């Protein structure tokens, strides 16, 4: 994987602050390694729908999924069951997996798949979004 290094500045910025000046430049940030810990085990999927908006995942976002991580209670995961993929928060109740949406609109229900038919394909470790291309 090629390295894409971009200047990282040591500052926080309120939404009203103009652009950061190079006087604040501290280091370079390798964007790929920031989002990806295990390149050989990580892939990117595109989020579709609005069931995870309260987790900060919007329609069209690029999700970085790491297959090398063991899914834990509370992780956002990419799951496969009933013939399709879904991204939800994994909640373990009495040792049984539940897949929780994060959208309080009431449009989405908690999914309670049979553990035998559920495959956790990976843990969502980060999310990428562009505002202008």
From TrEMBL:
Keywords in alphabetical order: Autocatalytic cleavage, DNA damage, DNA repair, Hydrolase, SOS response
Domain of life: Bacteria
Residue ranges of domain Peptidase S24/S26A/S26B/S26C in the record: 13-125
Gene Ontology BP terms: DNA repair; regulation of DNA-templated transcription; SOS response
MF (Gene Ontology): DNA binding; hydrolase activity
Pfam families associated with the record: Peptidase_S24 (PF00717)
Xref: InterPro entries: LexA-like, LexA/Signal_pep-like_sf, LexA_repressor, Peptidase_S24_LexA, Peptidase_S24_S26A/B/C
Alphabetized SUPFAM superfamilies for the sequence: LexA/Signal peptidase
The family this protein is said to belong to: Belongs to the peptidase S24 family.
Record's protein name: Protein impA
Species per Swiss-Prot/TrEMBL record: Sutterella megalosphaeroides
High-level lineage: Bacteria, Pseudomonadati, Pseudomonadota, Betaproteobacteria, Burkholderiales
